Amino acid sequence: MSAFPTPPRLSARSLDAGYPGRRVIENLDLEVEPGRITMIIGANACGKSTLLGVLARLHAPLGGEVLLDDVDVASIPRRRFAQRVGLLPQHPVAPDGLTVGELVARGRHPHRGVFERWSAADTAQVDDALRLTGVEALADRPVGDLSGGQRQRVWIAMALAQNPEILLLDEPTTFLDLSHQLEVLDLLVELNRVQGTTIVVVLHELNLAARYADDLVVMREGRIVAQGSPRDVLTAEVVSDAFALDALVMPDPLTGTPLVVPRPGGAHLTPDPT
């Protein structure tokens, strides 16, 4: 029996998505496995961030629907949806001078009415978020003074203060050096294991996605070409199809997860148009 309450199911049915004059995703079906870490990978402009944005209700689908426990999210009040689903966008920006504690406290907004006073429960949730992300000692420091890795931890803390059952993150390791990338991904694994939070991450780096994901979703040109465990999904054929890359895929000597090693000159393939 799971130690956590069953988290909600997030899914997409026959999803079309994009922007005026440009359809990025067409007729896509997706089931996010509750209580697991799902990573969405694919080449640039394949629709990864568009998909995450539609799942997060940043923009409406052009067709089909996004469901939370089989309820169309368009019918769920925004405040109620934000209580259950949190989002860390790709390039979050904090107002000048805002401290870490003030930023993390903003995660409580979906749980407080317009005229509600700050409560002991709000304080406890913010304190827990600061503790879980290891940034409680930074609470009084301006966000702008932090390193890249510290800032990402603080943004994740704000999302955790929201207390979501599902956390969506768009490229949370972008522009971080390798040690900080590992720091952020280790944190997400810890949060998933400790809190049972369903985590969905758009990630650029194949080998880190394979190492940290329970489930991989591989996209190409607005469609899913493979989905499942990293060992089942990340094959040389899938890497060739999705990334136009000739590569050797072998077990990582440390983790046993798939390790993608590009062959010299292997980045010049033309993706199969079928």
Automatic annotation (TrEMBL):
InterPro entries: AAA+_ATPase, ABC_transporter-like_ATP-bd, ABC_transporter-like_CS, P-loop_NTPase, Siderophore_ABC-ATPase
Record GO biological process: iron ion transport
SUPFAM superfamilies, per database record: P-loop containing nucleoside triphosphate hydrolases
Keywords: ATP-binding, Cell membrane, Ion transport, Iron, Iron transport, Membrane, Nucleotide-binding, Transport
GO CC annotation terms, alphabetical: plasma membrane
Gene3D superfamilies in the cross-refs: P-loop containing nucleotide triphosphate hydrolases
Compartments where found: Cell membrane
Residue span, ABC transporter domain: 10-246
Entry superkingdom: Bacteria
Topology class, membrane: Peripheral membrane protein
Molecular function (Gene Ontology), one example: ATP hydrolysis activity
Protein name: ABC transporter ATP-binding protein
Species per Swiss-Prot/TrEMBL record: Microbacterium hatanonis
Lineage: Bacteria, Bacillati, Actinomycetota, Actinomycetes, Micrococcales
